[in-house]
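Exercise (ungraded).
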Amino acid sequence: MTAAPRPAPTARLGQNQYGKAETRVVRVVRDGAVHHLTDLNVSVALSGAMDEVHLSGSNATVLTTDATKNTVYAFARTHGIDSPEAFGIHLARHFTSSQASIHRARIRIESYGWQRIAEPDTGHSFVRDGREVRTAQVEFDGTTWQVLGGLKELTVLNSTDSEFWGFVKDPYTTLPETTDRVLATDVDARWRYGWNGAGEQPDWQALYPAVRSRLLSAFAGTYSYSLQQTLYAMGARVVEEVPEVEEVRLSLPNKHHFLVDLEPFGLTNDNEVYLAADRPYGLIEGTVLREGATAAIPTD
Amino acid sequence: MTAAPRPAPTARLGQNQYGKAETRVVRVVRDGAVHHLTDLNVSVALSGAMDEVHLSGSNATVLTTDATKNTVYAFARTHGIDSPEAFGIHLARHFTSSQASIHRARIRIESYGWQRIAEPDTGHSFVRDGREVRTAQVEFDGTTWQVLGGLKELTVLNSTDSEFWGFVKDPYTTLPETTDRVLATDVDARWRYGWNGAGEQPDWQALYPAVRSRLLSAFAGTYSYSLQQTLYAMGARVVEEVPEVEEVRLSLPNKHHFLVDLEPFGLTNDNEVYLAADRPYGLIEGTVLREGATAAIPTD
Amino acid sequence: MTAAPRPAPTARLGQNQYGKAETRVVRVVRDGAVHHLTDLNVSVALSGAMDEVHLSGSNATVLTTDATKNTVYAFARTHGIDSPEAFGIHLARHFTSSQASIHRARIRIESYGWQRIAEPDTGHSFVRDGREVRTAQVEFDGTTWQVLGGLKELTVLNSTDSEFWGFVKDPYTTLPETTDRVLATDVDARWRYGWNGAGEQPDWQALYPAVRSRLLSAFAGTYSYSLQQTLYAMGARVVEEVPEVEEVRLSLPNKHHFLVDLEPFGLTNDNEVYLAADRPYGLIEGTVLREGATAAIPTD
Amino acid sequence: MTAAPRPAPTARLGQNQYGKAETRVVRVVRDGAVHHLTDLNVSVALSGAMDEVHLSGSNATVLTTDATKNTVYAFARTHGIDSPEAFGIHLARHFTSSQASIHRARIRIESYGWQRIAEPDTGHSFVRDGREVRTAQVEFDGTTWQVLGGLKELTVLNSTDSEFWGFVKDPYTTLPETTDRVLATDVDARWRYGWNGAGEQPDWQALYPAVRSRLLSAFAGTYSYSLQQTLYAMGARVVEEVPEVEEVRLSLPNKHHFLVDLEPFGLTNDNEVYLAADRPYGLIEGTVLREGATAAIPTD
């Protein structure tokens, strides 16, 4: 290999990471005739002593992304997949401990739900439960752990108990006030667990539905004067009732449902017929923290 | 308007249709504090005496697509939405009977499911049940009705009881035979009802789950030697057990799950760890008919 | 293999087909330092003596979809890819002539364009030219050939010379008439070549740009009173000027650009600021035929 | 409005922002018969004194997202759209200066390219040039400006002059080394301009093609031993040759093209026939900075 010319002195390398994205692994565990199914999409991002590969193309410190993919499959066999979080912890610990050049690993996982087909219940027949995608992210730098749980594409709607009025009227404000509107959103949530590697791992499989049910019940049970208020209620409910969670980040598109004007056709429309709009949409984003916690989930 | 020049004699107009596609209508019915939600995506296609608009641009026989959209909203108010099929029948009858120039109407509808949020049960809080999209298609030419029910994006998987062997070996065949594989597909089904406009409409809302449950149970309960066999079993089950259905068309992608070779890592893989592939995929399509029925669902 | 039970007599098998969909093949031809790139997505659908595989699961007449995929790759090597149409013809002839059980083959191909990076022109550096996807479809039943060319996702816009007025006013019509609007669409076109297998194949690579340029020039050059008129002009231009084409099917969404009402802000809007809408959209579909030709492109 | 109960003391509000996302604005400027077209997708995110709306639902400090949408349309009329960056600067300055409660504005813009249809050149006929999406982001907190240019979905491929070998071999490494492979990626790039609000704005419309051409030429002209090396070369080329740019962040998926094994069919494959894979894919991300600059583009 001919040495590639070094870059002119005006440029330098900043933060960088690499790895195999979207490795799709499905694991079947057979408990006699009863099978259990896990369905994940795993993305690995590694960083460390990677200056040379950028500057000269030398791969001497580079674990191939193909090997990171192979590791995902091998670990599904050797460690099993108790939960996305536990699986990510196995992977992050492995990459940072087995290669001197790798100083930090971030594992992102999407988990897809399946239900059993009930009739007939063969023990091995499943139907995809598409309501939402569960997410997890594990970061480890050899010392400090950060574990995020999450979900996305959970679509919810309240057909009443939502108002919107009393807002600023600037010269570009034409929106009428309303005391009864549809409030709908696709919940995109990530939450940070307090677990830092010391002591036993918490029960990730129990925590996911615990958080999810709080998000849903706060959405349903909040009489809303703005989507921001609902967002805060959802995040606060989790922080207040799930002690393992330090911080929740929510991104909530306002899926506008506009009341259709039927007057031109001689019809009333008493909050009955709505147009579901695509774009543009309001986008409300915010973090709710446990008192004393420091925000660590990226806001961008 | 200056008359546009008529086309040279070598070209002539063939089949044509037009209308507003993807009108998104959400209807809320309030039964006291308990709300009911219907969420549709309606596409209208009309045809008839439309030569002039193509040849000279004269819109004298053209009902605007904007008006077809308005009709969808107005009918949601005046007729309600008892089922996608009944709603489509109202629309198709209206367009063909109210405009002399419109000779045929085809209404396609997607219906999105919602469940109630259980805790708290406010009566007005819903979560999108994304497992599949229900579809309906109604065609009417003023005389003859054709009603199709359907569903798509229903993802199912059997983790065993599927074999694949005994196939043709040509010079390009390298696939090994197997007696135990994962069988997974996204069910895309359309079925034609026998109802032709005479007599009462059948109970569309009861028929949809009746067909859906047959598709699921035949998928789960069929010990499969090929996806074609499973396809036929699914269609036949519907035709045999749901007398209102004359014909079923199924399009089933073979969502390949390849057993990962873990031997390079010193590991066995006894049908435990699979790679879920995206492309390419097998695509199996077929029609199953009631004996004596004539196929009418397009195969392309 | 235990014989699966035969279906009850009320069901029978109708039209069916199968094959590997979306095989992505890229071919590089090295002409010294100058490389040539072809990038295809190939879908194979076969039909024939396939009753047994549906009824009993016997695969004795089934060429695997995996073998059809392998054939695509092998033929890219042995036959090259002169054009999507010629490649499809090789494949369709092979499947129908080499397997007694296969009576009909339909090959669908998407072709993605690449341009050379000009600076520096290394001879082997390309940038994807994403303006549209070229499509081709070849069907062969052992006797009769049908070859369709096509394109999709070709987005075009006229910012004036489009009017829309003089339409039907029914009780649901509220759209104002206009004598100056934006007309925009995504062209989805398929055209049928007259070539039936007798004689030399036409020059497919020359015909594609010949048709495409007619579609573009007719769109640009037609002063339009309706999108239907523009559709007909586009199809007729092709039929009249490209003798190899018998029939054109066009599907044109009306990508609405609504003039924004700026009056509430004390501003005029003289056809300057538009809102580009997503859904709903008008959808205009139609076939234009050469005089004497019989329509064969599916309309659904 | 009944005051909503204040949250329990364990939760508190962190970073938050809101606004209208994906406002689609198209502007036509008529220079006699010659029209000019601008096509943007604008997303506004505002933050400031927004505690009350989260805690009690009071909207007293909330400018509606609907008003931010209206402002986009009005500003397209009053300020025109000289470039995405200049348009974003108008918007960000307006929101932060006109509302005391708004302390920071971030404007994200996607810009879609159109070319003139050449034959006939009507002056008002355009075809979408889909090769890539140009992006811009403007942030302003009343004092400090940050302007990012960018592009995404620019797909490029080198069919040779790419090697990959000399990498770490751990127990999960099975990838063979290669001295001639296809290197392909979708370029997703963002770059930060040094302009901080002092002095004239740079010529954004000239800078975009200046950066784009450097990215392309560095991709094409770099003999590559790894995608990381190519990434660094692309970023360094921009930093070294475009003085207005301080920092470049690149995210480059490795769009794997696997050489197909044709040996089972008795065929050689001398870097001719490739399988274009979808998932999983390597993902290489990195920042290149001007010496002395501080990284500010988010890495996550």
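Further reading is listed at the end of the chapter. For now, observe: The helical segments of chain D are 51-55, 65-78, 84-98, 204-221, 227-241. The longest helix of chain D spans residues 204-221.
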